[in-house]
Amino acid sequence: MKKRLLATLLIIALAATMAACGSSAAPAASTAPAASSNDAEKPAEVVELVIGGVTSQNAKDATTRFIELVGEYSGGSITCVDFPDNQLGNDEQRWEMTQTGECDISIGSTSSVASSYNDFYIFDTPYLFLSRDEAFDVGFASDAGKAILAGVESVGLKGLALWENGFRNVTTNNKEVNSLADLKGLKLRTMDNEIHLAAWKAMGANPTPMAFSEVFTALQQGTVDGQENPYGIIVGNKFEEIEKYAIQTRHSFTPYYVVMNLDRWNSLTAEQQDAVTRAMAEATQYQKEQSAYYEEADVVTIEAAGCKVIKLSAEALAEFKAAADAADCATMAMGKMANPDLGQALLDALAAARG
Prior knowledge:
By secondary structure, this protein is an alpha/beta fold. Helices cover 48% and strands 19% of the residues. The chain contains 15 helices and nine strands.
């Protein structure tokens, strides 16, 4: 991993050098900025943080916002190098790289790393959150949600935030789905996650675990009948170009983890830690807003590609939820958690909020 990250950085540096050599701009000596009296006020040492991110535009926008804000709030003592679009590897690889310090901050799906940090399993429960506001304002903001994020310190990480990966929806390449019965026997690509598999089997589908890197080709070749992901991932990977139907099952609201190497966090000054915390809080709110915006924009993109968006009726959604509930995935998730009491506390907080 270390070699790959260094190689990536070297390629980017080389590309920048070649671009500079081929430029028709005036010589560097004539374009260099004049010395400023403010130079003496700049910190002697600048902390550079490497960030590994995902393909969703909402997360990329929020990362950009975080980078701008943390630079401002730290007085320029923190800069960042951003590697979005899985450039540093998949979710699990970035998580591991952040544990070892090869990456400073990483973003990815909690589902992908629940086997490494078991308390994330509760978020795999189908229909756990019924709206975006409920996820952020009740789920993530509850004492249980905060404790689940803070618990990543047990595996060498600092929990910075939970962001929105989005509500997961089904796409198919050969079958229109308007009811639970239409799902019967559908060969659906899923993550290799016990809770996901149990839920889809309960809903009548034929879940087929597969590496994400293989999904586009599998859909294209008809190896699977469909897949399920948030719209941001669907559009970010152009699945709408090869799928015929997008069904708004909204069966799971998957968070993104945003974590930092714990030793790296502890090496920051108190002022720098405060800058990271402030910047991340604002970036998190921005990410929520961008998620709502892009969800609407993604529907337009999907339809423009010729992929029909199917909005399930309230009755159909109730059927899906009842079938998933029958699998008792919440109990399964808590059985896999290191701290199942946090899972129960999260369920209790959601129940109380719903009255």
